[in-house]
Design goal:
The chain is built from six helices and 14 strands. By secondary structure, the chain is of the alpha/beta class.
Length: 215
C-alpha cells in the first residue's frame, strides 16, 4: 500500500511533523504535532481526501506536542504515546523551566500506550515500536519495515543526536538506545528525525560523530 510522507515543520523550533497518507484507503496518521501544524495538515488531508485517524507522539516534549490537543479536538484522532511521558503529556507545565516563555500548552491524553516491541497495523502496513530513551524517557521510534522508513523523534538526527542534558535525559542511555534500537535496523532504512533533514541508518553508523560504529 503506497504511503505518502509529508514533512510539515512547524512551531517556534520548526519541529518536524510527519503526515502519512494512504489515499487509496482514505486514511492518514500524524506523527508529532508542533504548534499551529493543523493548518498544514488540513490542507493535505483535503487535497488527498484522507481522514486523520491517529496521532502518534514520539515523545512528550512541548515542541512536539504543542498542537496535539487542537489536532485531536478537530479530528477525533486517537493518540498513541509511551507511558514514560504520561506526566509531560498530561501536565505540560512541568516543562516550564525549559520551554520558550509564554508558550500556551494544553494537556494531551493518550488513548493507546505503546512500548518496546509492540506491533500494530496502520495505513495497510505493519508498524513496530522501538523504545529509544536518552533524550526523553518516553521517546519511541515507529518503524515501517515494508516501507524502509523510521520516525524517531529526537533520538537521532542527521549526523547529530537529541540533547541528553534536559530533565530525564542521559547520554549513556541515548548511546545504548541508538546502537541497540536504531543501528540494528537495515542500513537502507530512512530515518525521519524530529528536526532537520532525513538520513539513513547506514550513513549515521559511519558518519555520526556522537554515536559511530567502531570499525
Amino acid at each position: 500500500m503506497p504511503i505518502n510522507v509529508h514533512v510539515l515543520p512547524a512551531g517556534p523550533l520548526q519541529t518536524n511533523a510527519y503526515l502519512l497518507t494512504a489515499p487509496v484507503l482514505g486514511e492518514a496518521v500524524l506523527i508529532d504535532a508542533p504548534g499551529d501544524v493543523w493548518w498544514d495538515v488540513e490542507a493535505v488531508l483535503r487535497r488527498e481526501k484522507c481522514k486523520l485517524t491517529e496521532l502518534w507522539l514520539t515523545h512528550g516534549h512541548w515542541d512536539h506536542t504543542q498542537g496535539a490537543a487542537d489536532v485531536v479536538r478537530r479530528t477525533g484522532a486517537k493518540v498513541r504515546a509511551h507511558r514514560d511521558d504520561q506526566l509531560l503529556l498530561e501536565k505540560p507545565e512541568l516543562m516550564n523551566g525549559y520551554m520558550i516563555p509564554d508558550i500556551e500548552m494544553e494537556p494531551v491524553h493518550a488513548d493507546l500506550w505503546v512500548g518496546q516491541g509492540d506491533t500494530f497495523s496502520a495505513l495497510g502496513e505493519e508498524v513496530e515500536v522501538r523504545h529509544v530513551p536518552g533524550h526523553c524517557p518516553g521517546n519511541v521510534l515507529f518503524w515501517f519495515a515494508g516501507e524502509k522508513k523510521a520516525f524517531g523523534g529526537d533520538s537521532l538526527f542527521a549526523e547529530s543526536i537529541g540533547r541528553p542534558d534536559l530533565p530525564g535525559g542521559n547520554m549513556q542511555q541515548l548511546d545504548r538506545s541508538i546502537r541497540s534500537q536504531i543501528y540494528t535496523l537495515p542500513d537502507e532504512t530512512v530515518v525521519f528525525p524530529g528536526h532537520g533533514p532525513a538520513t539513513t541508518v547506514g550513513h549515521e553508523k559511519h558518519h555520526n560523530p556522537y554515536v559511530r560504529v567502531r570499525e
